[in-house]
Design a protein that fits this description.
about 5% strand, homodimer, elongated, 2 strands, two-stranded antiparallel sheet, 7 helices, mainly alpha, DNA-binding
DNA sequence: CATAACATGTAATGAGTTACATGATTAA
DNA sequence: TTAATCATGTAACTCATTACATGTTATG
């Protein structure tokens, strides 16, 4: 469970309110760890409870921005967590189950689905590439932090490319298998 | 949510008890959709409730195997589900969050973690390749069902290869960034 | 000043995980 | 025949999702 630490990371990069964090999630860390605003508000409250972050103003704010920032203990916790062991995220994809199901009770015309997924991944890849050419143009070193951000983005690019290649192969297999 | 349909698929391939399904999950569909035995038992009970599967014996079995098999309505439901739209599984990986955290508050020596993950993925890749050479040796067509099973396995192989490539790059970047 | 957009929050639900319990079968 | 293992099951809990509610700020 990484959401609290994803939030601590975002706040370590820059203070912000819940809604700002939600917006930032949508275009950086969120590529690899999504969260709805409800999760974010709840988790921020917990982090404050635990003393890892603080927020202003003190009194209850309904409708008004609440400014969060990370505290030293939060940074410490984040550093501790970074080197915790983790298992690879379990690969869980409905499409794989659908392919097995297609094998068992098909054919059902699954290639339509696959073409749709292909388009989704192509769009995502295009988005990542746009971000890359905007934020990481030159190939010369740009400092440790930027290099690591670039690395994470390149993971996304690899991942989407992987899917596109696989889905193209899947289409071929499906067409061949029908004939 | 695919667990019920993963179970229907497994039962369409071959009838079995809860524990047998759990064991099969561990080495086929389970590569892409995991479930604990508790989930499986609960979900099998729901599927029976819904009339998609039936089980013997009728009376309560605590400690004794309960044999499940799929019913026609279960097959029908499975066919219907195959062509439901699905979104790509959200990519959610703690390591990506750790890399961002490392960028924000590091360096912390994250390369140890990455080497560990690298080993995990190399092991998995080796396992998948063993399965491939055991079950899908020849390159000649082996029928629709086998081709689709092979396809799913190849997705796993691609996926693990992707991770290995990425983690190797990550190691390079981390070493370079420290220096 | 009315309305839309924004920001925070509550409540209900469900999937998935963990810990534990109990009956049946197998092996020492 | 006792212990270990297998098979099924119950209970409690957490994360994540969905729907909804309420207040504040910006805009015409």
């Amino acid at each position: 469970m990484s959401l609290p630490h994803a939030l601590l990371t975002a706040l370590a990069e820059r203070p912000g309110s819940g809604s700002e964090l939600a917006a930032r999630f949508d275009k950086s860390i969120g590529f690899f760890w999504q969260a709805t605003h409800q999760q974010i508000y709840r988790e921020l409250a917990r982090l404050e409870e635990a003393g890892f972050v603080e927020s202003l103003p003190e009194e209850s704010t309904r409708g008004r921005k609440r400014a969060y920032r990370i505290l030293p203990s939060g940074r410490k916790e984040l550093k501790r967590w970074i080197n915790q062991h983790d298992e690879p995220a379990a690969l869980r994809d409905e499409l794989m189950v659908r392919l097995r199901a297609e094998a068992a009770v098909g054919p059902t015309g699954l290639d339509k689905q696959i073409e749709r997924r292909l388009a989704v991944h192509q769009d995502k890849l295009a988005l990542y590439r746009r971000i890359e050419s905007r934020d990481f143009q030159g190939h010369e070193p740009k400092g440790r932090e930027a290099e690591l951000h670039h690395l994470v983005l390149k993971a996304g690019i690899r991942f989407e490319s992987h899917w596109i290649e696989f889905l193209a192969e899947a289409l071929e297999v499906l067409k061949r298998a029908v004939a």
